[in-house]
Amino acid sequence: MSVVSCNSWGWLLDSCAHIDQDFQRCVCYSAAGLEENTHFTCCFKSEYFNVLKPHVQQNADVSGFPLDSGSHDRAEHEKVELKTRKKRKRKHHHLNTGEIEANIYHDKVSSVVAEGSRALLEAGRQCGYFTEALTESQTKSTPSESTPAHECQLAAFCDLAKQLPLSEESPVHTLSRDGQNPALDLFSSITENPFDCACEITFMREKYLLPPRCRFLLSDVTCMKPLVNSGDKFDLIVLDPPWENKSVKRSNRYSSLPSSQLKKLPVPALAAPGGLVVTWVTNRAKHRRFVREELYPHWAVEVMAEWLWVKVTRSGEFVFPLDSQHKKPYEVLVLGRCRSASDHADRCSAVNELPDQRLLVSVPSTLHSQKPSLAAVLKSYICREPRCLELFARSLRSDWSCWGNEVLKFQHCSYFSRHTHQEPSFDTQQHTHTETPKSTC
User: Fold this and answer.
1) How high is the pLDDT of residue 35?
2) Contact 324, 112 (CB under 8 A)
């Protein structure tokens, strides 16, 4: 279960368990179609969720050095600190408008984060979810964010592929049982796995896992026509934009997108009337203000609420101190609704009103920008059997459509452990779909 516990404050989530739900039944897909004699189970490697300690230790002195360290180590550390201070010497400055606004926002939400997280974490401890003492093998199995399972080249491929003409055929390419289209063209059309089992495909000599009943488009932001031309209208659209910031520029993890370019996304053409739009926002005040005051009004989306994703360790501590001046242990989600039309009223009659300041508490992935799924927590606030879409996605979800230039990144087989079954555990011929995937969240 992805939801460990929930109460009036929000939800405690297990992101790794949610991923694993989609890969209990897997089969290989090749040029010949489904290889029905090979059945296996995959699990996302749990070590990617082994966040064992806060990133800033609470038992450090002002310099950040542990209090119980020896005098020699401390002296060496102080020498390094002195050199660092000389290199990074900055003039004292007054807080700018953004910093003042960020502090005001933190003062507004900090009590909610502290009290709500305490209640959800206590519920997690009572059910045995959090581990106070970790074994030696667990502490050694945490991979570094700087050493990913594989080097992702998808964005570079998309950059090259945007020079190619779009396919004149159907905007949706569905995997077939007999492999009638052996060369998968993931760039110019939406690819759909219609089966109720996950499929392992080979693309550019790399193996990826596609969840059941998923759809995706691997493309640059300038090549979204297949998604628009599909004619689908989505009841839930989740965006995780590559916001511009200094950290991204220094790390060179991915290309950022100017805020002005986000307005050009075809959200109005993709959203169903009354549909829910959810945007992940960094803690920079100007980004949150841009979404609320410029982006959503431009898309005719009314802001309804702001939620917070609170990140904790495996033992239930904040990954950063709540009042840290460097980074906060939470990120913001801005939720809004598209202006509803009268013919959409019946479809949304059972939708609950969005509450404000709800918390999503979870252990984050050590992989950069891997967000928790929102499917389970949003099901009460969207219509029944909704069509769901994620933009700027880096992974796939069953019953969802996803788009991005790295949309298969975390579907690479190197992120999963594989267990082969001796006998087939299901009949793929009894589990096929040809209709547009519908979410069961």
Assistant:
1) 79
2) no
End-to-end CA distance of the chain: 12
- Report all structural domains of the chain as residue ranges with CATH numbers, in order of start: 3-48+143-423 (3.40.50.150)
Q: Which residues of 44-79 are buried (b: 16+ CB within 10 A; e: fewer)?
A: bbeebbbbeebeeeeeeeeeebeeeeeeeeeeeeee
Q: Is the four-CA dihedral 60, 65, 70, 71 of positive or negative sign?
A: negative
> Running DSSP on this structure, what letter comes out for residue 66?
B
Within 10 angstroms of residue 98's Cβ, the number of other Cβ atoms is 13
Which residues, in sequence order, are CB contacts of 211 under 8 Å at separation 6+? Answer: 22, 23, 193, 198, 396, 397, 398
pLDDT for the residue 301: 96
How far is Cα 186 from Cα 403, in angstroms, rounded to an integer? 11
Query: pTM for the whole thing?
Result: 0.83
**Is 408 strand, coil or helix?**
coil
pLDDT at 374: 93
pLDDT of residue 431: 44
Residue 213 zone, left/alpha/beta (φ > 0; ψ -120 to 50; rest): left
Kindly report each contact of residues 261-265 with a partner whose C-beta sits within 8 Å and lies 24 or more positions away, as own/partner. 261/221, 262/295, 263/294, 263/295, 263/298, 263/299, 265/221, 265/224, 265/239, 265/391
Backbone angles phi, psi at 173, to 5 degrees: -110, 115
- CA 113, CA 418: separation in Å to the nearest integer? 38
Q: pLDDT under 50 in the chain at which residues? A: 58-71, 74, 144-146, 343, 424-441
- pLDDT tens-digit series, residues 38-61: 789 999 999 999 998 898 654 444
User: Residue 25: which of 330, 428, 389, 434 has the closest Cα?
Assistant: 428
Q: What is the pLDDT of residue 208?
A: 95
- DSSP letter at 412 equals B
Mean per-residue pLDDT over the chain, rounded = 81
Residue with tokens 């609704």: 337
Measured distance CA(399)–CA(215) in Å, rounded: 8
User: How much is the pLDDT for 179?
Assistant: 64
The amino acid at 283: N
